[in-house]
Amino acid sequence: MQSEHSKPVAVWLLSISVLIFSMIVLGGVTRLTESGLSMVNWHPVTGWLPPLDAMTWDQVFADYRQSPEYNKVNAGMNLNEFKSIFWLEYLHRLLGRLVGIAFFLPMVFFAAKGWIRGVLLAKVIGLFILGGLQGVLGWYMVKSGLVDRPDVSQYRLAAHLGLALVILAAVQWVGLGLLKPIPTNAPGGAIVNKRLGRGVWALLGLISVTILSGAFVAGLDAGHVYNTFPLMDGDLVPEGLWDLSPPSLNIFENIITVQFDHRVLAISVLISVGIFYWRSGRVRLTVSQRLSARSLLAAALIQVGLGISTLVLVVPIPLAALHQAGAVVLLAVTIWLAHELRPQRGA
Predict the structure, then answer these.
(1) Contact, 161 vs 26, CB < 8 A?
(2) How many other CB atoms are there within 10 angstroms of residue 187's CB atom?
(3) Same domain membership, residue 98 and residue 118
(4) DSSP 65-107
(5) Given its phi and psi angles, is residue 184 left (phi above 0), alpha (psi -120 to 50 degrees) or beta?
(6) Residues 173 and 192 in one domain
(7) Domain termination residue (choose one: 151, 181, 211)
(8) 212-246: per-residue pLDDT in tens?
(9) In percent, how much of the chain has pLDDT > 70?
């Protein structure tokens, strides 16, 4: 049931979801510019400030010069060149800390005022803990690129992105629930169509898998090869999809298979969203339900267009960043639609 304090708490949570979105996009830009391994140390409590004097810069740069990325990729880089990649990763980590503060301080305030309590308080605390775990997982990902190979593990990259999406979706869902509580089965309430409700959750699963497959494309730099569409190396189904042994390894480590799977999944999302939208047009929906369904179709069309453009233009950074942002928008719109189509109490 909605209380007089639900709206400010909901605005706070939805604002946090926007910050998380920004964090994900900035993380993508950090990866695209190969800036993510510039900070080889992690100081979660004392690492707020960047280097402020020449001596500190020299020390940070000296630490970087011990890393595989410097020795195998950026050997001979000078301090000014190092600063150009350092700042992006620093801002990414700083934004993560700011998100934590923007979550923690209002949470304490709202709890002290009694505006969040019981089950809602437990959910909010759980989200805060997940945020802390995300920071740890981010460092675990970075560490994989500081050993021998100057690239982070695609497995850890997918896990890091996956947890970020889980947190974003959960924060958004709780916030929307406060703005628009579960409707009762009463005249004038939200319109329920159980088949559409199940369908949107199936879409959410397919979209999530597609985004995670994109993380493997990014982790293996698979977007820099086979830059034609719809053909790959002149074929719809290229050779070499199952060259690795055991066969399951191809899904995660074969560049050909990883890119092919992402293509197939992306087109499957577009077709599935189109079918869902067509079916939604055959039933009576509320204005907000109809708007969210239309938004989903628009987001899917734009996202596939961005993906194809990014591929054929060989991954220009601005376009690739838009493509990654589009994936998160598509997920968020699907969460919104799922929330609009959730069952009524007593339905």
Answers:
(1) no
(2) 4
(3) yes
(4) TTSHHHHHT-TT--HHHHHHHHHHHHHHHHHHHHHHHHHHHHH
(5) beta
(6) no
(7) 181
(8) 999 999 999 999 999 999 999 899 999 999 999 99
(9) 95
pLDDT band at 150 (very low <50, low <70, confident <90, very high): confident
Q: Which residues contact 2 (CB under 8 A, 6 or more apart)?
A: 178, 181
The answer to whether 165 and 208 have CB atoms below 8 angstroms apart is yes
Boundary-marking domain end, from 162, 181, 200: 181
Q: Which amino acid, 138?
A: G
d(CA 98, CA 47): 12
209, 213, 219, 222 alpha-carbon torsion, rounded to 10°: -170
Residue 31 has pLDDT above 60, yes or no: yes
Reading phi first (left if > 0) and then psi (alpha if -120 to 50, else beta), residue 344 is in beta
Nearest to 285 by CA among 199, 200, 192, 188: 192
**Tokens of residue 299, six digits:** 């987001």
Kindly state whether residues 141 and 14 are assigned to the same domain: yes
CA distance 237 to 306: 22
User: 């042994």: which residue's tokens?
Assistant: 245
Question: Does residue 314 sit in the same domain as residue 273?
Answer: yes
Domain that holds residue 127: 1-181
Q: Which of 346, 308, 300 is nearest to 326 (CA)?
A: 300
Predicted confidence band of residue 192 (pLDDT cuts 50, 70, 90):
low
Measured from the Cβ of residue 174, the count of other Cβ atoms closer than 10 Å reads 20
| Residue whose C-alpha is closest to residue 327's, from 156, 154, 208, 176 | 208
Mean pLDDT to the nearest integer, 71-90: 92
Residue 195's pLDDT is what?
A: 86
Do residues 334 and 203 lie in contact, with contact meaning Cβ atoms separated by under 8 Å?
yes
Residue 211 to residue 201: CA distance in whole angstroms: 15
